[in-house]
Specification:
The protein is an alpha/beta fold and about 260 residues long. The protein has two domains: about 190 residues, 2-enoyl-CoA Hydratase, Chain A, domain 1, CATH 3.90.226; about 45 residues, Lyase 2-enoyl-coa Hydratase, Chain  A, domain 2, CATH 1.10.12. It has eleven helices and ten strands. Helix 9 packs antiparallel against helix 10. Belongs to the enoyl-CoA hydratase/isomerase family.
């Protein structure tokens, strides 16, 4: 049995963390299953956008403390490096990703959501990096992504106090974009995913790549990435079709994605 499942609804792939009896806690096998599913999403041309969510009442409650409690320093470093590698693969997928956070997103769960491009939350969602209360640091990118998303001061406070916050505060900090009633979350995530999927996918993916690459460098290098992406789009059929339709005051109903 895989602890991570992939379901497709039209152009949208739904990745579900599926270990509900353990609140979807991340152990090595869960990470390996997620790694394999991400490869499937990348390879399948009919999946244009991916949603990441959790089965049951949790998104991901964190890494598996039972497994981690007996690790040596060397083993822990290896485990952290592997988890970071999987989350970097998620972050750098060519296809846009949306986290639909339906419950607990603590520790590794918060880090999983931050590796996605857009985060939506249920009103019942809880976020936090509680690791210092367990005598460790965040291990799957929390010290790096949280500061980039909510700013240094807010990240320092959340990580150093190990405080858990609700969905409303997460939205106020900019950790999530929108908060919805629990029974509306997946519908809203699918609505957003389909809106992204309806646009020209070469342009969508180049835009994502330019944003992601630009975050890792200075504004001058980032602007060069953008110019490269901008120019590449002018070699696509979608650019020619869309601009021709615009000039002729016609409505383009679909893209060829090439």
């Amino acid at each position: 049995m895989s602890f991570v499942t992939l379901e497709q609804k039209g152009p949208v792939g739904i990745i579900t963390m599926n270990r509900p009896d353990a609140l979807n806690a991340l152990n090595e096998q869960v990470l390996r299953d997620l790694d394999a599913v991400l490869d499937q999403v990348e390879e399948r041309e009919d999946i244009l956008v991916a949603i990441v969510t959790g089965a049951g009442r949790s998104f991901v409650a964190g890494a598996d403390i039972g497994q981690m409690s007996t690790l040596t320093s060397v083993e822990a470093k290896k485990f952290g490096a592997y988890g970071n590698g999987v989350f970097l693969k998620l972050e750098t997928l060519t296809k846009p990703t949306i986290a639909a956070v339906n419950g607990f997103a603590l520790g590794g769960g918060c880090e999983l959501s931050m590796a996605c491009d857009i985060r939506l939350a249920s009103e019942k969602a809880k976020f936090g990096q509680p690791e210092v209360g367990l005598g460790i640091t965040p291990g799957f990118g929390g010290t790096q992504r949280l500061a980039r998303i909510v700013g240094i001061s807010n990240a320092m406070e959340l990580i150093l106090t190990a405080r858990t916050i609700g969905a409303a505060e997460a939205k106020e900090l900019g950790l999530v974009s929108h908060v919805y009633p629990p029974d509306e979350l997946m519908d809203k995530a699918l609505e957003l995913a389909n809106a992204i999927a309806s646009n020209a996918q070469v342009a969508v993916r180049q835009s994502k790549a330019a944003i992601r690459r630009g975050l890792q460098t200075d504004i001058y290098t980032g602007a060069a990435y953008e110019s490269e992406a901008f120019g590449l789009c002018f070699a696509t059929e979608d650019q020619k079709d869309a601009m021709r339709a615009f000039v002729n005051k016609e409505k383009l109903t679909s893209f060829k994605n090439r």
